[in-house]
Design goal:
The protein contains 14 helices and 12 strands. It is an alpha/beta fold. Helix 4 (97-118) packs across helix 11 (285-298) and helix 10 (260-269) runs parallel beside helix 11 (285-298). Bound molecules: magnesium ion. Residues 146-251 form the Mandelate racemase/muconate lactonizing enzyme C-terminal domain.
Length: 380
């Protein structure tokens, strides 16, 4: 089998795009075509039109190529070989960031092709199904008042989630108000629900985003039993992460903005993060996530992927988690945007707090090509 074409399709919700921490207001769907008629789907949670340029660009020179043309003619089964080819072909301008994001979308599509060709779910190809359902945590943004925070968290408890994550939003308020938001959340959901907090690398009021200032906040909200504290410092502040891990017994999580095994090596070995959060559509795809997962296992580190875009990232994350001994939670974005909800013909149903791993061929999902066309946005 040979790859014949790589297509990158930006999608965007109609109307206004708000400058809030909801990355599912737009997106980019990747389609990889083959000479045997099998089409693989992937997606990238990044800056869609930048990703499209990286995929569609012509050759500038040997290590400065657009990713699409670089892999035409390759056998889609050779995922690790193709990963290295994309990495090397873009080395001059890539190595991290959005180029690895673009590679991730292509890599997911290649795994989808392999699964479809073999009539097997990706999780089997990744090494075997250690769990066929995964506990999901409802993932939402932190409102700005204690009452709204309580109502938001309770809403997802009533929907059947056994864990909820509140992120960003209200955590930009002064520290004493952040504490009230967390207190209200915990009081609303009681002690029988896990509460993750994504305090985000935004200043709380006048505080800077330094590990020392974030530790003050963490120490104040510790009594409300957070399951983890996420992205407390800048993604590049490895020393800051290390200081936090050494200074608190609350689990410290991060990594959604990290890419490649080289980046995660720092988070594991230097920061000693408790929980790694690679996004499968950003970290380098399933091929790289598998390597990151293996490295984390050797260091007794938990891996719980970040996922906040369409159903494609949910499916890819489920396949990854299903195969990992050190992963047991799915991030389930509860925001109701068209990109999050309409790119697939089905949504993932919550059953007793768990989501089933899709066992159809490839990603095991049905893409809604009409919805993709409806929200397609080639020119901004
Ligand atoms: Mg986050």
């Amino acid at each position: 089998m040979k790859i014949t074409k790589v297509e990158a399709i930006p999608v965007r919700q109609k109307g206004e795009i708000k400058k809030i921490n909801d990355s599912a207001q737009d997106g980019i769907i990747i389609k990889v075509y083959t000479d045997e008629g099998i089409i693989g789907y992937g997606e990238v949670d990044s800056a869609p039109w930048v990703v499209k340029s990286i995929i569609d660009s012509p050759v500038s020179h040997r290590i400065c190529q657009g990713l699409g043309q670089a892999i035409i003619g390759e056998d889609p089964f050779e995922t690790e070989k193709i990963w290295e080819k994309m990495y090397l072909s873009s080395m001059f301008y890539g190595r991290r960031g959005v180029v690895i994001h673009a590679m991730s979308g292509i890599d997911i599509a290649l795994w989808d092709i392999k699964g479809k060709a073999l009539n097997m779910p990706i999780c089997k190809l990744l090494g075997g199904v250690q769990r066929d359902k995964v506990r999901a945590y409802g993932s939402t943004l932190m409102p700005y008042t204690p009452q709204e925070a309580a109502e938001e968290a309770l809403r997802w408890k009533e929907q059947g989630f056994s864990a909820v994550k509140m992120g960003w939003g209200g955590f930009e308020l002064p520290q004493f108000e952040c504490v009230k938001l967390v207190e209200a959340t915990r009081n609303a959901i009681g002690d029988d629900m896990d509460m993750m907090l994504d305090i985000g690398f935004i200043p709380s009021g006048d505080f800077n985003v330094t590990a020392a200032s974030r530790l003050l906040l963490i120490n104040e909200i510790r009594e409300f039993k957070p399951y983890w504290i996420e992205e407390a410092v800048y993604p590049d502040d490895y020393e800051g992460y290390k200081m936090l891990v050494e200074s608190t017994d609350v689990r410290i999580a991060g990594g959604e903005n990290e890419t490649t095994r080289y980046g995660f090596k720092q988070l594991i070995e230097v920061c000693k993060l408790d929980i790694l959060q690679p996004d499968i559509t950003r970290c380098g795809g399933l091929t790289e996530a598998k390597r990151i997962g293996a490295m984390a296992t050797a260091h007794n580190t938990t891996v719980i992927p970040h996922a906040w875009s369409s159903g494609i990232v949910i499916a890819a994350s489920l396949h990854f988690i299903a195969t990992q001994s050190n992963s047991n939670l799915l991030e389930y974005c509860v925001w109701d945007t068209p990109i999050r909800k309409e790119m697939l013909k089905q949504d993932f149903k919550l059953r007793d707090g768990y989501v089933d791993v899709p066992m159809g061929p490839g990603l095991g999902i049905e893409i809604d090509d009409e919805a993709i066309q409806k929200y397609r946005c080639d020119i901004i």
